[in-house]
Write a structure and sequence with these properties.
About 25% of the residues are buried. With about 140 residues, the protein is an alpha+beta fold. A five-stranded antiparallel sheet has the order 1-3-4-5-2, with helices on one face. Helix content is about 25%, strand content about 35%. The chain is elongated.
Length: about 140
């Protein structure tokens, strides 16, 4: 995606992300979130939820993935502000969608939402900047 070609209202394609127990646990471990509600179903139930659930760090990572898959390797996320809603459990599919809400010189701001059958799981405002790459710089 060429960020300079974006206009306010430019939609992003949707991304469906199926969640299973392995994905939720692996993402929590990868983000060093060892809270038991993200990997131990019994402890999650004792704390009032029906099963383990996706951590905020994992959600943030999946929002970043969605944005960078769209914006490509010549971009960098410079700002993220997100708000969580309903939980995401094993067996859910998170559907991400978004659109451009603001443009600047070499930057765009996106409104991203990710939801499941219970409602909105995450709403995020993400700013992405164009990065000039020099051939052979290893980046």
């Amino acid at each position: 995606m060429n960020l300079d070609d974006c206009a306010v209202g430019t939609p992003m394609p949707t991304l469906d992300l199926p969640l299973n127990r392995t994905t939720i646990v692996a993402a929590a471990i990868a983000s060093q979130d060892f809270e038991d509600v993200h990997h131990d179903p019994g402890k999650a139930r004792r704390r009032g939820t029906p099963d383990i659930f996706l951590s905020i760090n994992s959600t943030n990572g999946f929002v970043d993935r969605y944005v960078t898959d769209w914006s490509g390797p010549n971009s960098r996320i410079t700002r993220v502000s997100l708000r969580l809603g309903v939980p995401a459990f094993p067996g859910d599919t998170l559907r991400f969608s978004g659109e451009v809400t603001e443009t600047g010189t070499g930057t765009v701001t996106l409104r991203v939402t990710g939801g499941n059958e219970r409602g909105v799981h995450v709403t995020a405002d993400v700013t992405v900047a164009r990065v000039e790459r020099v051939e052979g710089d290893g980046a």
